[in-house]
Amino acid sequence: MLPMPIAGPFGGPRSGFGPFYPGPSISRQLYQQYHAPPPHMTMNLPPHMTIPPQMLPQHPLPAPTGPPPPPHTHMGENPQMATLVLPYLMPQHMLPQSPRRPPHGPPPPPPHSHINDGAPVAEEGEQPVPFEGLLGGEGEVHSMLGPDDPTTHPILPSSHGRYENGTRVWMVTAKRDKGKQEWVKADVYHTEGTSGGTRVSMREVEGREEFIMVVPHQPKASPHGLQVHEGFTLVERAPRDESDSNKHGQHVGLFDLPPDVERDVVFALLGPGDLARLRRTCTLGSRRVSEDYVKTRIDAHLTNKGIKHIISYRIKHRTVGHMLRLLYFIEQSGDWAGWEPIIRVAKHQGRGGGQLSIELGSADVEAVGSRAVFDGRCEAMRQLSPIARHIGVRHENHDGEERWHGRPLTIYTPQTLLLVDHPFRNGFDPANPVCEYDGWEYASLRDAVLDQMRYGGSVVADESSSRWENATRYNRLHSLSTQQPPVWDRRTISTSHRPALPSDSVSDLPFDHPGLGRFDRVIVLHGDQPGHTFQAHLITCVGPDFVRAHFRTTEPPVDSEVGAARLPQTARVAREVIGADAETVFGSWCSATVGCSATV
Protein backbone atom coordinates (compact mmCIF):
# COMPACT_ATOMS: atom_id res chain seq x y z
CA MET A 1 0.00 0.00 0.00
CA LEU A 2 1.36 3.40 -0.90
CA PRO A 3 2.31 5.72 1.95
CA MET A 4 0.16 8.79 2.38
CA PRO A 5 1.55 12.16 3.48
CA ILE A 6 -0.34 14.03 6.18
CA ALA A 7 -0.58 17.76 5.64
CA GLY A 8 -1.88 18.49 9.11
CA PRO A 9 -4.63 17.55 11.61
CA PHE A 10 -8.24 18.34 10.94
CA GLY A 11 -9.07 19.14 14.54
CA GLY A 12 -8.85 17.89 18.09
CA PRO A 13 -9.55 14.25 19.09
CA ARG A 14 -13.04 13.04 19.82
CA SER A 15 -13.33 12.45 23.54
CA GLY A 16 -14.30 8.99 24.60
CA PHE A 17 -12.84 7.12 21.63
CA GLY A 18 -9.10 7.55 21.91
CA PRO A 19 -6.84 10.25 20.52
CA PHE A 20 -6.77 8.79 17.02
CA TYR A 21 -10.35 7.73 16.44
CA PRO A 22 -10.78 8.08 12.67
CA GLY A 23 -14.44 9.06 12.57
CA PRO A 24 -17.54 7.33 11.24
CA SER A 25 -15.63 5.19 8.72
CA ILE A 26 -15.00 2.73 11.61
CA SER A 27 -17.68 1.81 14.11
CA ARG A 28 -17.20 2.88 17.68
CA GLN A 29 -17.64 -0.67 18.98
CA LEU A 30 -14.99 -2.07 16.64
CA TYR A 31 -12.58 0.71 17.50
CA GLN A 32 -13.05 0.27 21.25
CA GLN A 33 -12.52 -3.49 20.90
CA TYR A 34 -8.89 -2.89 19.89
CA HIS A 35 -8.03 0.53 21.33
CA ALA A 36 -10.10 1.01 24.48
CA PRO A 37 -8.41 0.11 27.83
CA PRO A 38 -9.33 -3.30 29.31
CA PRO A 39 -12.29 -3.35 31.70
CA HIS A 40 -10.20 -3.89 34.83
CA MET A 41 -8.34 -0.63 34.09
CA THR A 42 -11.41 1.58 33.73
CA MET A 43 -12.86 3.64 36.56
CA ASN A 44 -16.27 5.32 36.76
CA LEU A 45 -16.04 8.71 38.47
CA PRO A 46 -18.97 10.17 40.39
CA PRO A 47 -20.57 13.25 38.79
CA HIS A 48 -19.01 15.71 41.26
CA MET A 49 -15.52 14.55 40.24
CA THR A 50 -16.10 14.95 36.50
CA ILE A 51 -14.24 17.84 34.89
CA PRO A 52 -16.50 19.93 32.66
CA PRO A 53 -15.20 20.20 29.05
CA GLN A 54 -14.95 23.97 29.24
CA MET A 55 -12.45 23.65 32.12
CA LEU A 56 -10.09 21.44 30.17
CA PRO A 57 -6.93 23.23 28.95
CA GLN A 58 -7.31 24.55 25.42
CA HIS A 59 -4.16 23.92 23.39
CA PRO A 60 -3.86 25.62 20.02
CA LEU A 61 -3.44 23.26 17.14
CA PRO A 62 -0.03 23.29 15.48
CA ALA A 63 0.08 25.08 12.15
CA PRO A 64 0.04 22.69 9.22
CA THR A 65 3.32 22.19 7.45
CA GLY A 66 4.10 21.78 3.77
CA PRO A 67 2.23 23.16 0.82
CA PRO A 68 -1.53 23.65 0.94
CA PRO A 69 -3.70 20.86 -0.44
CA PRO A 70 -4.71 20.79 -4.11
CA PRO A 71 -7.34 23.40 -5.03
CA HIS A 72 -10.10 20.85 -5.38
CA THR A 73 -9.82 19.39 -1.87
CA HIS A 74 -11.90 20.54 1.10
CA MET A 75 -9.30 20.00 3.76
CA GLY A 76 -9.85 21.58 7.12
CA GLU A 77 -13.44 22.66 6.62
CA ASN A 78 -14.76 20.52 9.47
CA PRO A 79 -13.04 21.49 12.75
CA GLN A 80 -14.76 18.63 14.58
CA MET A 81 -13.10 15.88 12.52
CA ALA A 82 -10.52 13.94 14.49
CA THR A 83 -6.95 13.37 13.33
CA LEU A 84 -6.85 10.45 10.94
CA VAL A 85 -4.91 7.23 11.49
CA LEU A 86 -2.75 6.05 8.64
CA PRO A 87 -4.11 2.81 7.24
CA TYR A 88 -0.88 0.93 7.78
CA LEU A 89 -1.16 1.67 11.55
CA MET A 90 -4.47 -0.22 11.76
CA PRO A 91 -5.10 -3.96 11.54
CA GLN A 92 -6.32 -4.83 8.05
CA HIS A 93 -9.67 -6.13 9.29
CA MET A 94 -10.39 -2.78 10.98
CA LEU A 95 -10.28 -0.85 7.76
CA PRO A 96 -13.73 0.05 6.42
CA GLN A 97 -15.13 -2.57 4.07
CA SER A 98 -17.31 -0.16 2.12
CA PRO A 99 -16.85 3.49 1.31
CA ARG A 100 -18.81 5.86 3.46
CA ARG A 101 -20.94 8.42 1.69
CA PRO A 102 -19.68 11.98 1.83
CA PRO A 103 -21.89 14.17 4.01
CA HIS A 104 -22.74 16.55 1.22
CA GLY A 105 -22.12 15.41 -2.35
CA PRO A 106 -19.00 15.94 -4.41
CA PRO A 107 -17.76 19.49 -4.87
CA PRO A 108 -17.89 20.94 -8.37
CA PRO A 109 -14.80 20.42 -10.53
CA PRO A 110 -12.41 23.35 -10.89
CA PRO A 111 -13.35 25.54 -13.85
CA HIS A 112 -9.96 25.06 -15.48
CA SER A 113 -10.27 21.29 -15.73
CA HIS A 114 -11.13 19.47 -18.92
CA ILE A 115 -11.35 15.92 -17.75
CA ASN A 116 -12.70 12.72 -19.22
CA ASP A 117 -16.04 11.77 -17.80
CA GLY A 118 -15.73 8.02 -17.34
CA ALA A 119 -14.72 6.25 -14.14
CA PRO A 120 -11.36 4.38 -13.82
CA VAL A 121 -11.57 0.74 -14.84
CA ALA A 122 -9.58 -1.97 -13.08
CA GLU A 123 -7.29 -4.21 -15.06
CA GLU A 124 -8.28 -7.81 -15.71
CA GLY A 125 -8.29 -9.91 -12.57
CA GLU A 126 -8.47 -6.99 -10.17
CA GLN A 127 -11.33 -5.92 -7.94
CA PRO A 128 -13.76 -3.32 -9.29
CA VAL A 129 -13.36 0.20 -8.02
CA PRO A 130 -16.18 1.12 -5.59
CA PHE A 131 -15.42 4.85 -5.53
CA GLU A 132 -16.72 6.02 -8.88
CA GLY A 133 -19.40 8.05 -7.09
CA LEU A 134 -16.64 10.41 -5.94
CA LEU A 135 -15.74 11.38 -9.48
CA GLY A 136 -16.80 14.86 -10.53
CA GLY A 137 -19.12 15.57 -13.42
CA GLU A 138 -16.12 15.87 -15.74
CA GLY A 139 -14.16 12.95 -14.38
CA GLU A 140 -11.95 14.72 -11.86
CA VAL A 141 -11.00 12.87 -8.69
CA HIS A 142 -12.25 14.83 -5.71
CA SER A 143 -11.51 14.40 -2.03
CA MET A 144 -14.43 14.99 0.29
CA LEU A 145 -12.42 15.63 3.41
CA GLY A 146 -8.88 16.20 2.17
CA PRO A 147 -5.98 14.18 0.79
CA ASP A 148 -5.33 12.53 4.17
CA ASP A 149 -8.55 10.50 4.38
CA PRO A 150 -7.95 6.97 3.01
CA THR A 151 -11.67 6.43 2.39
CA THR A 152 -12.14 9.34 0.02
CA HIS A 153 -9.72 8.50 -2.80
CA PRO A 154 -10.54 6.34 -5.78
CA ILE A 155 -7.93 3.82 -6.80
CA LEU A 156 -6.54 2.79 -10.14
CA PRO A 157 -5.13 -0.73 -10.49
CA SER A 158 -1.31 -0.99 -10.47
CA SER A 159 1.26 1.61 -11.39
CA HIS A 160 2.05 -0.44 -14.47
CA GLY A 161 -0.09 1.07 -17.25
CA ARG A 162 -1.75 3.46 -14.80
CA TYR A 163 0.12 6.59 -15.78
CA GLU A 164 -0.01 6.78 -19.56
CA ASN A 165 1.23 9.65 -21.66
CA GLY A 166 -1.18 12.52 -21.23
CA THR A 167 -2.23 11.55 -17.70
CA ARG A 168 -2.58 14.61 -15.48
CA VAL A 169 -1.49 14.64 -11.85
CA TRP A 170 -1.10 16.98 -8.92
CA MET A 171 2.52 17.56 -7.91
CA VAL A 172 4.16 19.53 -5.14
CA THR A 173 6.67 21.96 -6.59
CA ALA A 174 10.25 21.22 -5.63
CA LYS A 175 12.28 24.01 -7.24
CA ARG A 176 10.44 26.99 -5.81
CA ASP A 177 11.74 29.01 -2.88
CA LYS A 178 11.31 27.43 0.51
CA GLY A 179 7.91 28.17 1.90
CA LYS A 180 6.50 28.93 -1.56
CA GLN A 181 5.93 25.37 -2.66
CA GLU A 182 2.48 24.78 -4.01
CA TRP A 183 0.36 22.17 -5.72
CA VAL A 184 0.52 22.34 -9.51
CA LYS A 185 -0.82 20.22 -12.32
CA ALA A 186 1.59 18.22 -14.41
CA ASP A 187 1.22 16.03 -17.49
CA VAL A 188 2.92 12.68 -17.89
CA TYR A 189 5.06 12.65 -21.02
CA HIS A 190 7.15 9.49 -20.48
CA THR A 191 6.97 6.28 -18.43
CA GLU A 192 9.55 3.56 -18.01
CA GLY A 193 9.32 0.31 -16.08
CA THR A 194 11.79 -0.29 -13.26
CA SER A 195 12.28 -3.00 -10.71
CA GLY A 196 9.13 -2.98 -8.58
CA GLY A 197 7.72 0.24 -9.98
CA THR A 198 7.31 2.70 -12.83
CA ARG A 199 9.47 5.76 -13.46
CA VAL A 200 7.08 8.56 -14.39
CA SER A 201 8.36 11.75 -16.07
CA MET A 202 6.07 14.77 -15.82
CA ARG A 203 6.05 18.38 -16.94
CA GLU A 204 4.23 21.21 -15.18
CA VAL A 205 1.16 22.42 -17.08
CA GLU A 206 1.89 25.90 -18.45
CA GLY A 207 4.95 26.00 -16.22
CA ARG A 208 8.69 25.42 -16.23
CA GLU A 209 9.23 22.60 -13.76
CA GLU A 210 9.74 18.93 -14.55
CA PHE A 211 9.32 15.99 -12.19
CA ILE A 212 10.49 12.37 -12.10
CA MET A 213 8.84 9.95 -9.69
CA VAL A 214 9.18 6.20 -9.22
CA VAL A 215 5.78 4.84 -8.32
CA PRO A 216 5.83 1.35 -6.75
CA HIS A 217 3.80 -1.39 -8.37
CA GLN A 218 0.61 -2.32 -6.59
CA PRO A 219 -0.16 -5.78 -7.88
CA LYS A 220 -3.42 -6.11 -6.00
CA ALA A 221 -5.77 -3.14 -6.05
CA SER A 222 -7.30 -2.35 -2.69
CA PRO A 223 -10.43 -0.27 -2.25
CA HIS A 224 -8.62 1.44 0.63
CA GLY A 225 -5.43 2.28 -1.26
CA LEU A 226 -4.48 5.78 -2.32
CA GLN A 227 -3.43 7.53 -5.44
CA VAL A 228 -1.05 9.68 -3.45
CA HIS A 229 2.66 8.96 -3.31
CA GLU A 230 5.08 11.53 -1.89
CA GLY A 231 3.00 14.49 -2.98
CA PHE A 232 1.96 12.82 -6.24
CA THR A 233 -1.83 12.67 -6.83
CA LEU A 234 -3.69 11.47 -9.90
CA VAL A 235 -6.09 14.05 -11.36
CA GLU A 236 -6.92 12.93 -14.88
CA ARG A 237 -6.47 9.86 -17.00
CA ALA A 238 -4.85 9.87 -20.41
CA PRO A 239 -6.87 11.35 -23.29
CA ARG A 240 -9.20 8.83 -24.92
CA ASP A 241 -7.94 9.57 -28.40
CA GLU A 242 -4.45 8.19 -27.73
CA SER A 243 -3.34 5.20 -29.78
CA ASP A 244 -4.04 2.85 -26.88
CA SER A 245 -7.46 4.36 -26.06
CA ASN A 246 -9.36 1.27 -27.14
CA LYS A 247 -8.28 -0.85 -24.21
CA HIS A 248 -10.82 -3.04 -22.51
CA GLY A 249 -13.38 -1.01 -20.57
CA GLN A 250 -12.53 2.39 -22.04
CA HIS A 251 -15.04 4.46 -23.99
CA VAL A 252 -14.80 7.63 -25.99
CA GLY A 253 -16.14 10.47 -23.83
CA LEU A 254 -18.61 12.94 -25.33
CA PHE A 255 -16.29 15.90 -24.86
CA ASP A 256 -13.28 13.97 -26.24
CA LEU A 257 -14.70 14.17 -29.76
CA PRO A 258 -13.41 16.70 -32.29
CA PRO A 259 -15.48 19.90 -32.04
CA ASP A 260 -16.94 19.58 -35.54
CA VAL A 261 -18.00 15.96 -34.93
CA GLU A 262 -19.45 16.91 -31.56
CA ARG A 263 -21.39 19.86 -33.00
CA ASP A 264 -22.46 18.55 -36.41
CA VAL A 265 -23.00 14.87 -35.64
CA VAL A 266 -23.66 14.21 -31.95
CA PHE A 267 -25.39 17.45 -30.91
CA ALA A 268 -27.43 17.41 -34.12
CA LEU A 269 -29.07 14.21 -32.87
CA LEU A 270 -30.13 15.87 -29.61
CA GLY A 271 -33.39 17.72 -29.26
CA PRO A 272 -33.79 20.95 -27.26
CA GLY A 273 -34.77 19.00 -24.14
CA ASP A 274 -31.66 16.83 -24.38
CA LEU A 275 -29.50 19.90 -24.94
CA ALA A 276 -31.01 21.53 -21.86
CA ARG A 277 -30.22 18.45 -19.77
CA LEU A 278 -26.70 18.25 -21.18
CA ARG A 279 -26.19 21.92 -20.35
CA ARG A 280 -27.10 21.24 -16.72
CA THR A 281 -24.85 18.18 -16.47
CA CYS A 282 -21.44 19.78 -16.07
CA THR A 283 -19.37 22.86 -16.73
CA LEU A 284 -18.30 21.66 -20.16
CA GLY A 285 -21.92 20.96 -21.05
CA SER A 286 -22.92 24.54 -20.23
CA ARG A 287 -20.03 25.84 -22.32
CA ARG A 288 -20.70 23.69 -25.36
CA VAL A 289 -24.49 24.25 -25.37
CA SER A 290 -23.97 27.98 -25.58
CA GLU A 291 -26.18 30.82 -26.80
CA ASP A 292 -24.26 30.91 -30.07
CA TYR A 293 -24.71 27.18 -30.64
CA VAL A 294 -28.47 27.32 -29.95
CA LYS A 295 -28.71 30.33 -32.29
CA THR A 296 -27.12 28.34 -35.10
CA ARG A 297 -29.68 25.57 -34.55
CA ILE A 298 -32.61 28.02 -34.64
CA ASP A 299 -31.28 29.70 -37.79
CA ALA A 300 -30.86 26.32 -39.48
CA HIS A 301 -34.47 25.34 -38.75
CA LEU A 302 -35.81 28.69 -39.98
CA THR A 303 -33.88 28.19 -43.20
CA ASN A 304 -34.93 24.57 -43.66
CA LYS A 305 -38.58 25.45 -43.12
CA GLY A 306 -38.37 28.28 -45.66
CA ILE A 307 -39.44 31.01 -43.23
CA LYS A 308 -36.17 32.77 -42.42
CA HIS A 309 -37.21 35.71 -44.61
CA ILE A 310 -40.55 36.17 -42.82
CA ILE A 311 -39.72 35.20 -39.21
CA SER A 312 -36.75 36.36 -37.16
CA TYR A 313 -36.11 36.61 -33.43
CA ARG A 314 -34.42 38.84 -30.91
CA ILE A 315 -34.40 37.68 -27.31
CA LYS A 316 -33.53 40.74 -25.21
CA HIS A 317 -31.07 39.84 -22.47
CA ARG A 318 -31.30 36.48 -24.15
CA THR A 319 -31.04 33.45 -21.97
CA VAL A 320 -30.24 29.99 -23.19
CA GLY A 321 -33.44 28.76 -21.53
CA HIS A 322 -35.67 31.01 -23.67
CA MET A 323 -33.66 30.22 -26.78
CA LEU A 324 -33.94 26.48 -26.17
CA ARG A 325 -37.70 26.86 -25.77
CA LEU A 326 -37.87 28.82 -29.04
CA LEU A 327 -35.74 26.15 -30.69
CA TYR A 328 -38.19 23.48 -29.54
CA PHE A 329 -41.21 25.44 -30.78
CA ILE A 330 -39.67 26.01 -34.22
CA GLU A 331 -38.30 22.49 -34.49
CA GLN A 332 -41.62 20.84 -33.62
CA SER A 333 -43.85 23.25 -35.55
CA GLY A 334 -44.06 21.32 -38.82
CA ASP A 335 -44.56 22.66 -42.35
CA TRP A 336 -45.09 26.42 -42.53
CA ALA A 337 -45.85 26.62 -46.26
CA GLY A 338 -49.45 27.82 -45.80
CA TRP A 339 -48.54 30.71 -43.50
CA GLU A 340 -46.32 32.90 -45.65
CA PRO A 341 -49.13 34.30 -47.85
CA ILE A 342 -51.27 35.04 -44.77
CA ILE A 343 -48.38 36.78 -42.99
CA ARG A 344 -47.74 38.92 -46.08
CA VAL A 345 -51.40 39.94 -46.22
CA ALA A 346 -51.30 40.91 -42.53
CA LYS A 347 -48.20 43.03 -43.03
CA HIS A 348 -49.67 44.86 -46.04
CA GLN A 349 -52.61 45.74 -43.80
CA GLY A 350 -50.25 47.12 -41.15
CA ARG A 351 -50.91 44.45 -38.53
CA GLY A 352 -48.24 43.88 -35.89
CA GLY A 353 -46.30 46.92 -37.01
CA GLY A 354 -46.54 46.11 -40.69
CA GLN A 355 -42.92 45.00 -41.02
CA LEU A 356 -41.38 41.83 -42.39
CA SER A 357 -39.89 39.83 -41.01
CA ILE A 358 -41.88 39.12 -37.85
CA GLU A 359 -39.47 39.51 -34.95
CA LEU A 360 -40.17 37.07 -32.13
CA GLY A 361 -39.13 38.01 -28.61
CA SER A 362 -39.26 36.67 -25.07
CA ALA A 363 -42.93 37.67 -24.72
CA ASP A 364 -43.82 35.55 -27.74
CA VAL A 365 -41.97 32.57 -26.29
CA GLU A 366 -43.84 32.97 -23.00
CA ALA A 367 -47.17 33.38 -24.81
CA VAL A 368 -46.84 29.93 -26.36
CA GLY A 369 -47.34 28.38 -22.95
CA SER A 370 -45.88 25.22 -21.52
CA ARG A 371 -44.40 22.43 -23.55
CA ALA A 372 -47.36 20.20 -22.63
CA VAL A 373 -49.81 22.79 -23.98
CA PHE A 374 -47.72 23.24 -27.13
CA ASP A 375 -47.44 19.49 -27.75
CA GLY A 376 -51.20 19.08 -27.35
CA ARG A 377 -51.96 21.46 -30.21
CA CYS A 378 -52.41 20.65 -33.89
CA GLU A 379 -49.66 21.68 -36.28
CA ALA A 380 -51.32 24.88 -37.48
CA MET A 381 -52.02 26.00 -33.90
CA ARG A 382 -48.39 25.33 -32.94
CA GLN A 383 -47.31 27.62 -35.76
CA LEU A 384 -49.85 30.31 -34.88
CA SER A 385 -49.09 30.45 -31.15
CA PRO A 386 -45.78 32.39 -31.32
CA ILE A 387 -46.79 34.74 -34.18
CA ALA A 388 -50.47 35.42 -33.35
CA ARG A 389 -50.08 38.94 -31.96
CA HIS A 390 -47.94 39.95 -34.94
CA ILE A 391 -50.80 39.27 -37.38
CA GLY A 392 -53.60 40.80 -35.34
CA VAL A 393 -54.89 37.73 -33.45
CA ARG A 394 -55.05 37.87 -29.66
CA HIS A 395 -54.58 34.21 -28.89
CA GLU A 396 -54.39 32.61 -25.44
CA ASN A 397 -54.91 29.29 -23.71
CA HIS A 398 -57.15 29.49 -20.65
CA ASP A 399 -57.20 26.32 -18.53
CA GLY A 400 -56.73 24.17 -21.61
CA GLU A 401 -59.25 26.10 -23.74
CA GLU A 402 -57.96 27.96 -26.80
CA ARG A 403 -59.35 31.50 -27.05
CA TRP A 404 -59.23 34.32 -29.57
CA HIS A 405 -59.97 37.82 -28.36
CA GLY A 406 -61.47 36.28 -25.23
CA ARG A 407 -63.90 33.99 -27.12
CA PRO A 408 -63.58 30.19 -27.29
CA LEU A 409 -62.04 28.61 -30.38
CA THR A 410 -63.20 25.03 -30.93
CA ILE A 411 -61.07 22.58 -32.90
CA TYR A 412 -63.12 19.88 -34.67
CA THR A 413 -62.19 16.23 -35.10
CA PRO A 414 -63.27 13.86 -37.90
CA GLN A 415 -65.65 12.22 -35.44
CA THR A 416 -67.35 15.58 -34.80
CA LEU A 417 -67.89 16.19 -38.51
CA LEU A 418 -69.23 12.68 -39.09
CA LEU A 419 -72.11 13.31 -36.70
CA VAL A 420 -73.66 15.83 -39.08
CA ASP A 421 -73.72 16.37 -42.80
CA HIS A 422 -70.99 19.01 -42.54
CA PRO A 423 -69.92 20.93 -45.66
CA PHE A 424 -66.21 20.71 -44.66
CA ARG A 425 -66.16 17.00 -43.86
CA ASN A 426 -64.48 15.80 -47.08
CA GLY A 427 -61.56 18.25 -46.95
CA PHE A 428 -60.60 17.65 -43.31
CA ASP A 429 -56.85 17.98 -42.54
CA PRO A 430 -55.72 16.97 -39.02
CA ALA A 431 -52.69 19.28 -39.26
CA ASN A 432 -54.94 22.24 -40.17
CA PRO A 433 -58.36 21.17 -38.94
CA VAL A 434 -61.86 22.55 -39.23
CA CYS A 435 -62.68 24.92 -36.37
CA GLU A 436 -65.48 27.08 -34.99
CA TYR A 437 -65.21 30.63 -33.69
CA ASP A 438 -67.89 33.15 -32.74
CA GLY A 439 -70.68 31.12 -34.36
CA TRP A 440 -68.84 30.61 -37.67
CA GLU A 441 -67.31 27.35 -38.90
CA TYR A 442 -64.10 27.54 -40.93
CA ALA A 443 -62.68 25.08 -43.43
CA SER A 444 -59.38 25.20 -41.51
CA LEU A 445 -57.59 27.08 -38.77
CA ARG A 446 -55.64 29.11 -41.31
CA ASP A 447 -58.94 29.99 -43.01
CA ALA A 448 -60.14 31.38 -39.68
CA VAL A 449 -56.98 33.49 -39.29
CA LEU A 450 -57.26 34.93 -42.81
CA ASP A 451 -60.93 35.76 -42.24
CA GLN A 452 -59.89 38.00 -39.33
CA MET A 453 -58.28 40.25 -41.98
CA ARG A 454 -61.38 40.60 -44.16
CA TYR A 455 -61.92 44.25 -43.27
CA GLY A 456 -58.33 45.36 -43.88
CA GLY A 457 -57.78 48.17 -46.39
CA SER A 458 -60.38 50.53 -47.84
CA VAL A 459 -63.59 49.76 -49.76
CA VAL A 460 -63.40 49.80 -53.57
CA ALA A 461 -66.78 48.28 -54.39
CA ASP A 462 -69.73 46.79 -52.49
CA GLU A 463 -72.58 45.25 -54.50
CA SER A 464 -75.56 43.30 -53.07
CA SER A 465 -78.57 41.72 -54.72
CA SER A 466 -81.31 39.18 -54.09
CA ARG A 467 -81.76 35.86 -55.74
CA TRP A 468 -84.91 36.89 -57.62
CA GLU A 469 -83.38 40.19 -58.79
CA ASN A 470 -80.47 38.62 -60.68
CA ALA A 471 -80.42 34.84 -60.75
CA THR A 472 -77.30 34.71 -62.99
CA ARG A 473 -75.24 36.78 -60.56
CA TYR A 474 -76.57 34.80 -57.61
CA ASN A 475 -75.63 31.44 -59.12
CA ARG A 476 -72.15 32.59 -60.16
CA LEU A 477 -71.31 34.04 -56.75
CA HIS A 478 -72.73 30.93 -55.07
CA SER A 479 -70.37 28.81 -57.18
CA LEU A 480 -67.37 31.07 -56.44
CA SER A 481 -68.13 30.87 -52.70
CA THR A 482 -68.47 27.09 -52.40
CA GLN A 483 -66.23 25.49 -55.06
CA GLN A 484 -62.96 23.86 -54.06
CA PRO A 485 -59.94 26.18 -54.36
CA PRO A 486 -58.32 27.56 -56.38
CA VAL A 487 -60.61 30.35 -57.56
CA TRP A 488 -59.32 32.36 -60.55
CA ASP A 489 -56.01 30.57 -59.96
CA ARG A 490 -55.80 32.15 -56.51
CA ARG A 491 -55.07 29.87 -53.53
CA THR A 492 -54.94 32.26 -50.56
CA ILE A 493 -58.56 31.78 -49.63
CA SER A 494 -60.68 31.64 -46.49
CA THR A 495 -63.99 29.78 -46.52
CA SER A 496 -66.53 30.01 -43.70
CA HIS A 497 -70.03 28.77 -43.03
CA ARG A 498 -72.73 30.03 -40.68
CA PRO A 499 -75.29 27.30 -39.87
CA ALA A 500 -78.91 28.38 -40.01
CA LEU A 501 -80.76 29.00 -36.78
CA PRO A 502 -83.83 26.86 -35.96
CA SER A 503 -86.78 27.65 -38.20
CA ASP A 504 -88.87 29.05 -35.35
CA SER A 505 -86.18 31.68 -34.72
CA VAL A 506 -85.77 33.13 -38.23
CA SER A 507 -89.26 34.23 -39.22
CA ASP A 508 -88.61 37.87 -38.41
CA LEU A 509 -85.02 38.10 -39.74
CA PRO A 510 -84.22 40.14 -42.90
CA PHE A 511 -83.35 38.13 -46.04
CA ASP A 512 -79.61 38.96 -45.80
CA HIS A 513 -79.20 38.01 -42.11
CA PRO A 514 -76.42 35.43 -41.41
CA GLY A 515 -78.79 33.57 -39.09
CA LEU A 516 -80.57 32.23 -42.16
CA GLY A 517 -77.40 30.32 -43.03
CA ARG A 518 -74.53 31.64 -45.16
CA PHE A 519 -71.28 30.86 -46.95
CA ASP A 520 -68.59 33.54 -46.94
CA ARG A 521 -65.26 33.53 -48.75
CA VAL A 522 -62.19 35.82 -48.75
CA ILE A 523 -60.20 35.57 -52.00
CA VAL A 524 -56.82 37.34 -51.97
CA LEU A 525 -56.22 38.77 -55.45
CA HIS A 526 -52.92 40.49 -54.71
CA GLY A 527 -50.45 41.03 -51.85
CA ASP A 528 -49.72 37.44 -50.77
CA GLN A 529 -46.50 36.99 -52.77
CA PRO A 530 -42.98 38.48 -52.62
CA GLY A 531 -42.63 41.68 -54.63
CA HIS A 532 -46.25 42.82 -54.16
CA THR A 533 -46.49 46.42 -52.99
CA PHE A 534 -50.13 46.41 -51.88
CA GLN A 535 -52.89 43.98 -50.98
CA ALA A 536 -56.37 43.55 -52.52
CA HIS A 537 -59.07 40.95 -51.81
CA LEU A 538 -62.66 40.14 -52.64
CA ILE A 539 -65.26 39.04 -50.07
CA THR A 540 -68.26 37.04 -51.31
CA CYS A 541 -71.32 36.32 -49.16
CA VAL A 542 -74.08 33.93 -50.22
CA GLY A 543 -77.30 33.25 -48.30
CA PRO A 544 -80.46 31.37 -49.25
CA ASP A 545 -81.80 34.39 -51.20
CA PHE A 546 -79.00 36.91 -51.02
CA VAL A 547 -75.50 37.56 -52.51
CA ARG A 548 -72.90 40.24 -51.92
CA ALA A 549 -69.48 41.13 -53.39
CA HIS A 550 -67.19 43.35 -51.31
CA PHE A 551 -63.87 44.54 -52.81
CA ARG A 552 -61.08 46.10 -50.65
CA THR A 553 -57.50 47.30 -51.25
CA THR A 554 -54.55 48.86 -49.40
CA GLU A 555 -53.38 50.83 -52.46
CA PRO A 556 -53.17 54.57 -51.66
CA PRO A 557 -55.63 56.48 -53.91
CA VAL A 558 -54.55 59.10 -56.43
CA ASP A 559 -56.23 62.28 -55.15
CA SER A 560 -56.60 64.04 -58.47
CA GLU A 561 -58.33 61.12 -60.22
CA VAL A 562 -61.77 59.52 -60.15
CA GLY A 563 -63.18 56.10 -61.02
CA ALA A 564 -60.77 53.34 -61.99
CA ALA A 565 -57.95 55.90 -62.42
CA ARG A 566 -58.13 56.69 -58.73
CA LEU A 567 -56.80 53.16 -57.90
CA PRO A 568 -54.94 52.21 -61.07
CA GLN A 569 -53.03 49.19 -59.76
CA THR A 570 -56.07 47.72 -58.04
CA ALA A 571 -58.16 48.14 -61.20
CA ARG A 572 -55.44 46.45 -63.26
CA VAL A 573 -55.28 43.48 -60.84
CA ALA A 574 -59.07 43.09 -60.84
CA ARG A 575 -59.22 43.05 -64.64
CA GLU A 576 -56.31 40.58 -64.95
CA VAL A 577 -57.45 38.18 -62.23
CA ILE A 578 -61.25 38.29 -62.42
CA GLY A 579 -61.42 38.72 -66.17
CA ALA A 580 -64.79 37.91 -67.71
CA ASP A 581 -66.41 37.55 -64.27
CA ALA A 582 -65.77 41.22 -63.43
CA GLU A 583 -69.13 42.55 -64.68
CA THR A 584 -71.01 39.65 -63.11
CA VAL A 585 -69.31 40.13 -59.75
CA PHE A 586 -69.36 43.93 -59.55
CA GLY A 587 -72.58 44.68 -61.49
CA SER A 588 -73.27 48.41 -61.62
CA TRP A 589 -69.97 49.14 -59.88
CA CYS A 590 -67.92 47.53 -62.64
CA SER A 591 -67.28 50.53 -64.92
CA ALA A 592 -66.67 52.99 -62.08
CA THR A 593 -64.28 50.82 -60.08
CA VAL A 594 -62.30 48.52 -62.33
CA GLY A 595 -63.15 49.75 -65.79
CA CYS A 596 -64.57 46.38 -66.80
CA SER A 597 -66.38 47.86 -69.80
CA ALA A 598 -63.04 48.00 -71.55
CA THR A 599 -62.62 44.24 -71.37
CA VAL A 600 -66.11 42.80 -71.64
Automatic annotation (TrEMBL):
<protein>
    <submittedName>
        <fullName>Uncharacterized protein</fullName>
    </submittedName>
</protein>
<feature type="region of interest" description="Disordered">
    <location>
        <begin position="56"/>
        <end position="78"/>
    </location>
</feature>
<feature type="compositionally biased region" description="Pro residues">
    <location>
        <begin position="59"/>
        <end position="72"/>
    </location>
</feature>
<feature type="region of interest" description="Disordered">
    <location>
        <begin position="93"/>
        <end position="162"/>
    </location>
</feature>
